[in-house]
């Protein structure tokens, strides 16, 4: 027979569940976004745990969605075990299955997407609530139980988010120092212009600071560099000088024989883009095109 306390907990659980379901299916403009959408959106491959401590900028601009996905499900771990005595090994698989069903409904109704990462973060939140409840309920005094449970939530949440940040940083590549392209050896005999003389493009004075590559007339210059499978961020500037005999020129960036970027207009263009797993980088310069201040940064793990 249910006690008054159980009935109160059931009422709170029903109301809270309704609020969560409303947010999941009708919050943040989901119905409007679903209009005209006829494609299922899903992510079946889990990434690293998408949790991190919010910065002041996140709090100011309300960018705490992932943290909300975590904290919003802690109450389920607190309330459900009070009604149904169960062990963690039974509770969390059933809870995870329930979240998967909700994620599937979001996808099928076009009111969201199926995201395995969300299901994992939701379940972590419920796990924190469950463990905090198990720690706190041992105390007979209701006030001691509440205090210990609250402290347990803070400690466990901090530990999980901290571990998530450490894991993410350990397996996320970061940019290394800027390196001039001319510091690498090329198979081309094309000399690098070390004078770095200024020139004009579109009446704008260009003053290279690192390097200059170019060709003239009908010439075609090809530079090839070996990167041994590295992930890099390539930066460059392109243009055709105003004093060129004509404005015909082109630069093609290829990686392992596949073209990834092409520049062929007269105007000055600056570009920076990521290239993954580069073995051979080839730069083809045609006509009166010029490249200058060409650099790269290697992407690597902090522990490298």
Molecular structure report:
The protein has helices at residues 4-26, 30-34, 56-60, 65-71, 74-83, 88-108, 116-136, 142-170, and strands at residues 42-43, 114-115, 174-180, 199-201, 204-206, 212-214, 220-239, 249-255, 258-263, 269-287, 290-300. With 304 residues, it is of the alpha+beta class. The chain has 2 domains: 4-170, no CATH class; 176-300, NPCBM/NEW2 domain (Jelly Rolls, Sandwich). Strands 3, 6, 7, 8, 9, 10 and 11 form a 7-stranded antiparallel beta sheet that branches. A two-stranded parallel ribbon has the order 1-2. Strands 4-5 form a two-stranded antiparallel sheet. Strand 8 and strand 9 form a beta hairpin. Helix 6 packs antiparallel against helix 7 and helix 7 (116-136) packs antiparallel against helix 8.
